[in-house]
Amino acid sequence: MAAGQGRCLAQCVAAYEKHGGNIIAVEEVLADETHQYGVVSIGKDFGHTFEITGMVEKPPKGTALSNLIISGRYVLGPEIFAILEKGEKGAGGEIQLTDGMKALAKSQSFTACASMERPMIAARNWAFSPPISPSPSPIRHWPLCSERN
User: Where are the domains of the chain?
Assistant: First the structure.
């Protein structure tokens, strides 16, 4: 399912129905922001989805696998819970879901689908640009994935 054709979790479910395995929604960010997120590497292109060949949680600046971040929407197999129960700490001294998914990827496939209807960079530029007209609040509403259609 292409970005903009349904809500992002619905896109993940559609990708699961097509590919099986585990599905992760991804979004594009600026390259100099990748150190703040879990990042995926791009494998085989399936059209509107792609194979994930690697993941890293909060890579050091300048070392990210791509500029595609894990956006926090998943369709994962139940095996992930046994991995996370081990309590192994990763980046920031915390249990990281990305690390659990990397362990699961040793035995199961992972596929990514885009989770936005417009490029993340354009949305971010819009969200942080000065208001066109005076506004009582400098904060702009940025539609969440669940609000997009």
Answer: 8-116
